Amino acid sequence: MKPPTDYLGSSRRLESVQDRLGNTDRSMTILALLSGLVAFLVVSPMFWLFWQATTVEATRAYDLVVSSRTAWITFNSITLMVLVTVFSILLGVPLAMLTTRTDLPYPRLWTIVAALPLVIPSYIGAIAFAGMFGPGGEVDTLFGATIPRVDGLSGAVLIITLYTYPYVFLTTRAALLSMDNSLVDAARTLNAGPLEAFRRVTFPQIRPGIAAGALLAALYAISDFGTPAFMQADVFTSTIYWEFSNFAVEYAALLALQLIAIVAIVLVIEAGIGRDEDVAGGTAKGSVVRLGRWKWPAMGFVSFIGFLTLVVPVAIFTNWLFRSEGDPIPSLEFQPEFAFNSVYLALLAALVACLFALPVAYYSGRSNSLVSRILERATYVGFAVPGVVIGLALVFLGTRTLPSFYREGVALLVFAYVVRFLPQAVGTVRSSVLQIDDKTIEAARTLNAGRLETFRRITLPLIMPGLIAGGVLVFLTTMKELPVTLMLQPVGMDTLVSIIWGAQDALAYRYAAVPALLLVVISGLSMLVLLRQEEV
Predict the structure, then answer these.
(1) Given 29, 185, 384, 475, which is the most exposed site by the fewest CB atoms within 10 A?
(2) Do 387 and 489 form a contact (C-beta atoms < 8 A)?
């Protein structure tokens, strides 16, 4: 029979365990409530957009939706998305094969060259190509040769493809690096030719990677605003902005809902095509494809892509730095405050996004419940919805419900950035949370450390790298965001992207030179984050 003291000690230990379990339950409840609040705030702009659309009279809404103009816009938007996706695959997959499965010299160099266009906003490329070709363009001025202007739907397809194919290149390359190359060698020993081996062995293995990159390219194409606007292509994003600018908010809201529907259909299609079925992973090395006499044409092909996407825009904007043609436009003259405003807004967005991401990512990483998964996925809504739609929804929210919030400007604009790019912070923070060893936290709790002290001294330092990485990604993407900035920017608070827009609108391209070059430099920092996470 145990002494009374043993029973007393066992009782106290049991009470201690129960207290810890109770504290854990309370902590999870608080995290769930905070995550629910963040998810509600992120999704709320969509409610106002749907509400605005329902205020349109049914007969008028029907006439607007089935009008010939709406049909033309829908056709152009879908055509743009499909062509950009197809051409991105035709560029990205061969480049991925060249840099991973062949004896192409200096594969790391060509990998960087092929991936770098991703960090340059497509609308900067659009301005460069618009100023390069056509009568009075750079080619005409320097060489006296008039090349047809790059504009319209075909111009938008070309420019967006050149700056989105890296999505397919990077995801396909990752799939190629992770698959077992010996499977291809086995197929070759059975007298399968290179094309047949690719079709029957390699393609089924890398199909999910191709589908993932194609989805990103398709979503970028259907949601891009700057390039179609600069190329004067009638698609959903540019039309929504022009209708909003002309106070036709009913038509803009209906178009926005149709655009959301197309995005949803794309996501459903990708879920079926990109499903991972019987993919064999491995690290076995296989033989590389010998290029032989095709080695130099292959290097020339990659070099030409890099020249078009990187050298040409930088050269064009650098040349415009020293041009002073035309009447001066004082409002577009570069001022340091433009860069300061961009950095200030991006920093605020990054800080708020990290604060919002923390409870969502921590709750999702520490709990495997259905509620945690739903709340985490809800934060991705703003990232999947085009920026012009987010801007329009927040205009409705601000003008109809929170007019003082809308007039103040900065807070609503920062909130729009957070809604748009919050998933970048949630994803990186959640990855860090998943790597925390439960035993480490439990050890701190056994030393009578409270929940807040354990989080401050143990958890926060462990997830800080992910928090910083997420903040940096939000900062960089906020710097480049065009439609949200144009629609919600406070009066008199010009930024780099708004000056670029103003220069293009006035056809005074030289004023876009300094802001564009600054954005290229800042955007290049995102590639450092990407390359540090990938082992080439």
Answers:
(1) 29
(2) no
